[in-house]
């Protein structure tokens, strides 16, 4: 309770100091207005000057407010990023590495690995059969074939040719 009382005293003193600083600053910056004894044109000029000063101060206030809002948004974004980073671990970008089976076994087993993993050596070799040489290709004039098969006679030949090997 003693600490709370001391903190309250300091807080009250701080408020009084801020108020005194504000009054001192305003007394330096603001000069008192003397409007008595001024003509109408002089009063209008004074109003125009005051209006220009108010516009300048208003523009500065607007700029400061925009900067403050921008900073507040940036702080919120950074807080969200911090929370995200706390919850997750950042994964490093992985690279594709080509390693032979021997190198992989050596890395896993260390110096114990002495067996060669040459998988291609154990494969059987298969000879390719030349199917093109077995099948003779007849190259002829295609126009003769079309003329021979055209009309009803050609269809009869096709029918007889399809029927004859099965009939024997």
Automatic annotation (TrEMBL):
Keywords: Acetylation, Actin-binding, Coiled coil, Muscle protein. Belongs to the troponin I family. Binds to actin and tropomyosin. GO terms for cellular component: troponin complex. The lineage of its organism: Eukaryota, Metazoa, Chordata, Craniata, Vertebrata. InterPro entries: Troponin, Troponin_I, Troponin_sf. It comes from the Eukaryota. It comes from Brachypteracias leptosomus (short-legged ground-roller). Residues 8-60 form a coiled coil. Gene3D superfamilies: 1.20.5.350, 6.10.250.180. Transmembrane segments: none annotated. GO terms for molecular function: actin binding. SUPFAM superfamilies: Troponin coil-coiled subunits. GO terms for biological process: cardiac muscle contraction; skeletal muscle contraction. Signal peptide: none annotated. Pfam families: Troponin. Troponin I is the inhibitory subunit of troponin, the thin filament regulatory complex which confers calcium-sensitivity to striated muscle actomyosin ATPase activity. This is Troponin I, fast skeletal muscle.
């Amino acid at each position: 309770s003693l600490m709370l009382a001391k903190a309250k005293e300091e807080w009250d003193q701080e408020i009084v100091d801020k108020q005194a600083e504000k009054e001192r600053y305003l007394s330096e910056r603001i000069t008192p207005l003397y409007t008595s004894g001024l003509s109408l044109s002089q009063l209008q000029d004074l109003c125009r000057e005051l209006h220009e000063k108010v516009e300048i101060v208003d523009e500065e206030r607007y700029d400061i407010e925009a900067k403050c809002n921008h900073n507040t948004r940036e702080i919120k974004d950074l807080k969200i990023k911090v929370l995200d980073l706390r919850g997750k671990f950042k994964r490093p970008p992985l690279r594709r590495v080509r390693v032979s089976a021997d190198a992989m076994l050596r890395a896993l087993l260390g110096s114990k690995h002495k067996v060669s993993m040459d998988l291609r050596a154990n494969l059987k070799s298969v000879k390719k059969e030349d199917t093109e040489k077995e099948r003779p290709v007849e190259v002829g004039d295609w126009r003769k074939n079309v003329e021979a098969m055209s009309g009803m006679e050609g269809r009869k030949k096709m029918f007889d040719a399809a029927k004859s090997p099965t009939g024997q």
